[in-house]
Write a structure and sequence with these properties.
5-stranded mixed β-sheet
């Protein structure tokens, strides 16, 4: 079954409302008194501070190198009118991400070196650790002193924001305090923020649909998709005043936990919706084989033959059939050995897994029929038409309860040498990928013989409703029995001998028919 994905549409809508200013549109008038500067004034101040720092760094460099070149001043990026994707409040402004922060890369550990779980004091943050807007602290690896000396310049601060640039691309988040100054992977960049930028607000803006679309458009393919620093610097971003940034963060921190709860509830609802039919089906089958489904029926029914009497008749008939076949074979071979009489299996009281009605009895599957294993049908022996056949993989991928037609065919030569399935036989796969696939039973309802492939078996019951046995074998109790008897890890297997040993409850034949009738009425309602 495909994994159900969380519906994040509400979160995306709220983040989009945040980046357009609509999330706090009702708060703008209340915040007017708190504005110390507009978004444009904030951007101008950041540019001025960046230039002052560049100038100070240059003057300091002159003391060591009088020929140090004076840096070119930073200027705010030009943004054409046609680039602006949507309207923002008047006191906001548009900028590029590189205007309000420095984008710097991380560093890969040297070739041949490995990370360690031993606490060396030098933490190393990988993209795998970056989840849900933060970093999973208890998963973080370490680097040795030697590696740290080589890559110590590539660290990330708790005041920075990370953005992933390879593998998982475009995820952003905040660095926890305990990972302050940890070394950063080459698959993520750090955004070093200037004064006046709320790191939480920037993270939320980077997570918006508008920003993620820019990332998607900018991914380059050089061996593998990667987000280049120059692209990140050029991304467009609306810049609110700091007071507005803080208000947006406060509002999102209030709303997003409720959104998470809502989205998780929707996910659980969808999972329940998908799982419920299977759970109800299992419950119906379990009620069927314990007699609870026909409890009311038994009160007015006239039982002609109890389950124990039915079992005795089955044993008697099987012995009579074996004796008749032996007497017939004597005509061709007088030395044919007389068959050993079939006897009902002994079942100890402590073996019985649950109570059944008084008119029922317990027996083993091998008491009420015969198993015959199939013979191999190679894949290249199958045809789009010809004589019908069934292979073991089709049992648990296609046939859940009933086989009424096949999708595989063989020519007459292959068909003639195979074991056959006839009407009312129960087919099962002896091999599967897990214990639930093993011996998943289906009854054949067609009239033509079907050739049976290898790693399959057919069970031919005597005086027992085949569908009742299918329901019993596919019930939670039946699955548990087969699971306990199956062997193997990657490929799981079960033998005919083990299947024969499975204990089954045996109702009177009339009640078997009634159980099948009720189950067939109820199962369609599961959908």
């Amino acid at each position: 079954m495909a994994q159900i994905k969380k519906d994040t549409s509400l979160r995306k809508s709220i983040l989009q409302a945040a980046i357009t200013g609509q999330l706090i549109s009702s708060c703008h008038s209340e915040l007017d008194s708190e504005y110390t500067e507009t978004g444009k004034e904030l951007l101008d101040r950041i540019i001025e501070e960046r230039n002052n720092k560049l100038l100070a760094d240059w003057e300091y460099a002159l003391k060591k190198n009088p020929k140090a070149k004076k840096p070119a001043p930073v200027v705010a990026s030009e943004i054409d009118e046609e680039e602006i994707p949507f309207e923002i409040p008047e006191n906001w402004c548009w900028c590029r991400l590189g205007d309000i922060c420095l984008v710097k890369g991380g560093k890969r550990i040297p070739a041949g070196c490995t990370l360690t779980d031993i606490d060396t004091g030098h933490k190393y943050i990988r993209v795998a650790d970056m989840k849900n807007g933060s970093v999973i602290v208890n998963n973080v690896k370490y680097i040795t002193d030697e590696i740290h000396e080589k890559i110590k310049a590539y660290k990330i601060s708790k005041d920075d924001v990370y953005i992933t640039v390879a593998g998982t691309i475009g995820d952003s988040g905040i660095i926890p305090d305990e990972l302050d100054n940890a070394n950063l992977t080459e698959n993520a960049d750090k955004l070093v923020l200037f004064n006046g930028i709320n790191k939480y607000c920037l993270h939320f803006f980077l997570s918006s649909g508008f920003f993620q679309e820019q990332i998607s458009d900018a991914i380059t393919k050089v061996g593998q998709p990667k987000l280049a620093i120059i692209r990140i610097q050029n991304f467009l971003l609306p810049l609110p005043p700091l007071a507005i940034q803080n208000t947006i963060v406060a509002k999102l921190e209030q709303v997003l936990p409720l959104v998470d709860a809502y989205e998780n509830a929707l996910l659980q609802k969808e999972e329940l919706k998908n799982a419920l039919p299977g759970k109800v089906k299992k419950a119906i089958l379990q009620e069927a084989i314990t007699g609870k489904l026909t409890e009311a029926w038994r009160k007015s029914a006239t039982i002609k033959e109890s389950g124990k009497q039915l079992l005795d008749r089955i044993i008697e008939e099987r012995n009579a059939k074996a004796l008749a076949e032996w007497e017939e074979s004597l005509k061709k071979n007088p030395k044919t050995k007389k068959p050993v009489s079939v006897v009902a299996s002994e079942i100890e009281e402590e073996e019985i897994p649950f109570e059944v009605p008084e008119s029922w009895c317990w027996c083993r599957l091998g008491d009420v029929g015969d198993f015959v294993r199939g013979s191999g049908i190679k894949r290249d022996e199958t045809r789009p038409e010809g004589f019908p056949c069934i292979r073991y993989g089709e049992m648990y991928t296609r046939y859940k309860t009933v086989i009424n037609e096949t999708v595989s065919f063989v020519d007459k030569n292959v068909f003639d040498k195979c074991q056959k399935i006839i009407k009312n036989d129960i087919a099962m796969a002896l091999t599967g990928e897990n214990e639930y696939d093993i011996a998943l039973a289906a009854v054949y309802t067609g009239d033509k013989e079907i050739a049976m492939g290898g790693d399959m078996t057919r069970f031919r019951p005597a005086f027992v409703n085949s569908l009742f046995l299918v329901f019993a074998l596919n019930s939670p109790y039946g699955i548990e029995c087969k699971s306990e008897l199956a062997t193997g890890n990657i490929i799981v297997h079960i033998s005919n001998d083990k299947l024969e040993s499975i204990m089954i409850p045996l109702p009177p034949l009339e009640e078997q028919d009634e159980i099948v009738k009720k189950v067939e009425e109820l199962l369609p309602l599961c959908k």
